[in-house]
Amino acid sequence: MYTYSVYWINEEVAKHYFHKSDILYRFLRDYQNNPDRIDLITQFEYITNSFSEKKLVTHFKKQYREQKVLIKINSPRIEIYKDTTSISLHISEKQLEFRCKTLQDAEEILFPILRKFQPILFITGINIDNYGWISPVIISSNYQEKQVLYSHL
């Protein structure tokens, strides 16, 4: 089983670091390995948002009710079962931690629900060297709809 952490990244930081995932990954890894460093704690608090366990559990119940997925809630843990696949999800204030056999299992039964909850999520492997965004970050443009870069007369 592989273990992953999910972080809800502040939108401003996500816009600046979407294409610099390796930097964000190294920072999160350093933070996990040095939990007493004040500078890392301060930065971590700034770049991450908190998860509301109540809102997340409500979201999971609503979304999975419409699918053939069984969920068992034993707060702060959610067990998710679909066919022969299972995922264990632990909810903390600043991160979600889940265990699965393959990342494909998470892609099939966990990530679609998380994307509907919040699309700006960054995932890091704890016992595997994987990391990345759960969804592409959509950056709204300040440009007018019909504005062009140049035109010919």
* H and E string: EHHHHEEEEHHEE
CATH fold type:
TATA-Binding Protein
Q: Using the coordinates above, name the CATH class.
A: Alpha Beta
* Largest β-sheet summary: 7 strands, antiparallel
Q: Give the number of DSSP strands.
A: 7
Average pLDDT metric: 86
- Relative helix content: 25-40%
Q: Please, how many helices?
A: 6
Low-confidence stretches are: none
Largest beta sheet: what is the strand line-up? 2-3-4-5-1-6-7
Approximately what portion of the residues adopt beta-strand conformation? 15-25%
In CATH terms, what is the architecture? 2-Layer Sandwich
The CATH superfamily name is Sporulation inhibitor of replication protein SirA
Which radius of gyration do the C-alpha atoms yield? 18 Å
What spatial form do the alpha-carbon principal axes imply?
Answer: globular
**Total domain modules:** 1
What structural category do the secondary elements indicate? alpha+beta
InterPro entries: SirA (IPR019683), SirA_sf (IPR038449)
Protein name: Sporulation inhibitor of replication protein SirA
Describe the structure.
The protein is α+β, with helices and mostly antiparallel strands. The chain has a single domain, classed as Sporulation inhibitor of replication protein SirA (TATA-Binding Protein), CATH 3.30.310. Helix content is 37%, strand content 25%. The chain contains six helices and seven strands, in the order E-H-H-H-H-E-E-E-E-H-H-E-E. It has helices at 11-17, 21-33, 38-47, 53-65, 103-109, 111-117; strands at residues 2-8, 70-74, 77-82, 85-91, 96-100, 121-125, 131-133. The protein has a seven-stranded antiparallel beta sheet with strand order 2-3-4-5-1-6-7, with helices on both faces. Strand 2 and strand 3 (77-82) form a beta hairpin. The longest helix is centred in the first third of the chain and has 13 residues, at 21-33. The protein is globular, with a radius of gyration of 18 Å.
